[in-house]
Amino acid sequence: MSTLISSELADFISGPVMMVVSTRDQRFRATIGRGTGALYDEATGLIDIFVCRAQWPDVVENAVPGGKIAATFVRPTDYLCYQIKGVIEDITPATEAEAARGQLYVERMLALMEALEVRRAQLSHSLCAGDLMRIGFHPSDVFLQSPGPHAGERLAGLTA
């Protein structure tokens, strides 16, 4: 297990959390999109996050090996929130199994949000499991981003 990614954090990011992914272009202009599931691979040390290319084309286009990425993971039931920054290792189309996992993620999140009284129609257009791309990145920094006195606090990281 990475010293940056604890088993609890690995479970958190692969659980029922909303995700925002940000990459940047060559002029350092950020683009954002929603993630459609993520997981941490202890063997490679990579976080894989899935993004719908058709829905968030700029995020995917700017996701190049060696590029920077930031992903924010928020649990909607209590707003516990982490941001993980890192360096992109690779980007590939999702496999069939990964696409199926992405579809389960969307269904799970729509049900969870509906239980929190967010109508399905409000989210169904922004959660997409089609045309998924897998962006693998090496985490470099972890921040707590939950609202409160510790928001923005670096929990682990390689850079100062």
Layout of strands and helices, then pairs:
Elements: H1 7-13, E1 18-24, E2 30-41, E3 46-52, H2 57-61, E4 68-75, E5 80-93, H3 96-115, H4 120-123, E6 132-144, E7 154-157
Antiparallel strand pairs: 1-2, 1-4, 2-3, 3-6, 4-5, 5-6, 6-7
Sum up the structure in keywords:
4 helices, about 160 residues, about 40% strand, six-stranded antiparallel β-barrel, alpha+beta
Q: How much strand?
A: 35-45%
H/E element sequence: HEEEHEEHHEE
| Uncertain segments | none
Largest sheet: 6 strands, antiparallel, barrel
Quickly count the helices.
Answer: 4
Find the count of extended strands (DSSP E, 2+ residues): 7
Q: Characterize the overall form.
A: globular
Helix content: 10-25%
Rg value: 15 Å
Q: Structural class of the secondary structure composition?
A: alpha+beta
How widely separated are the two ends? 22 Å
Q: Compute the average pLDDT.
A: 92
Strand order of the largest sheet: 1-2-3-6-5-4
Task: Describe this entry's structure for a reader.
A hairpin with a 4-residue loop joins β2 (30-41) and β3 (46-52). This protein has 4 helices and 7 strands. Helices cover 22% and strands 41% of the residues. The protein is an alpha+beta fold and 160 residues long.
Structure, briefly:
With 160 residues, the chain is α+β, with helices and mostly antiparallel strands. The protein is 22% helix and 41% strand.
